[in-house]
Amino acid sequence: MTPLPTPDGPPSAQLDAEIAQLRAQFPRTADLYREVCVLLFFRYGITPTANKLYQLVKKGSMSAPADALAAFWTILREKSRVRIESPDLPDEIKGALGELAIAIWDRAQTSAQEALTGFRSDASQQADQARAAQAGAETEVARLRQELTGSAVLLDSARAKGAELEQEVATLTAACEAFKSQLQRAQHEQAELQRALGDARRDFAAELDKQRAAGELAEERLRATETRALLEIDRERVAVSRAQKALDDLVRKSEQRDERYRKQEAALRAQVGDLRHQVGILEGNLSAGRAENKALTGQLERAQRELARPNAGPTTRAPAKRAPRVAAPVTPPRKRAGRSTGQG
């Protein structure tokens, strides 16, 4: 027989409660230890030991749980053994059939133990979920308690505010009564103002009629003035047109006179150029005459010095012949092509 797996263990409170019930049912120590072994092994899947039994029961001497445990295993082996009693079968077949039955029993017990383990796992998960739900519920209860405490504080504050609001309402009621009296006075004043406004409207209508008549008269005068102004504008436009024509004639004549003056200026500039050319020629002739005069003056001075010498010979030197004076050629003034001597 294969040993059963040992789980973490049942809740101690439940196990202690069941052991307490067994104490009441089995007063004998040996019977009590035997039933505790059955409880641990078959219900909780825990392999019982002498120390564990003594820790749970705590009754009798240390040999009592050991004896009870040995008797439990002996009884369990005897009950788990399969005996096949048949006079026709040989002993070998009987033994083989017994071993086969034991193997089948072990396989069935293993399957049952696996199913029990799965059930315990599901139960443990459900217990964890229940604990988590309980923790959440406790948290929610704590939160609700805090909210309730806060609500009580808010209620007290609301009551205080309600008292303050009642005082404010009383104050506002008194103010409202005062406002009503003021409103009545204002309505009375408004009625008087309405009557005064009616009188003012009638006066304004009469004045408006007068102003309308005056406006119509002024409009007629304005139309007459506008007509006269248009006539004046037409006359001024005609005068401006005539003045513009006269101005255009003056501008045209001025342009013609300017053109004539420009032509005369060009002719005078041409004459000035010719005169400057003639002056240049005359200045050249004058320079040549001055040079010739200077040469003749030098010759005269030399002749005078020779005549004034004291040791001059009996024969006198004939006076030197005077070189004939050659006048510089005079170039006639140049005439510009196309030059007009008269005024344009």
Report on the structure:
With 344 residues, the chain is mainly α. The chain has a domain at 12-122. The protein is built from five helices and no strands. It has helices at 12-25, 29-43, 50-57, 63-80, 91-307. α2 packs across α4 and α3 (50-57) packs across α4 (63-80).
Structural key phrases:
5 helices, mainly alpha, 344 residues
Distance between the termini: 160 Å
Structure classification: mainly alpha
Integer average pLDDT: 80
**DSSP helix fraction:** over 70%
Number of strands: 0
Q: Based on Cα principal axes, name the global outline.
A: elongated
What string gives the helices and strands in order?
Answer: HHHHH
- Fraction in beta strands: under 5%
Number of helices: 5
Protein name: ATPase
Coiled coil: 127-203
Pfam families: KfrA_N
InterPro entries: KfrA_DNA-bd_N (IPR021104)
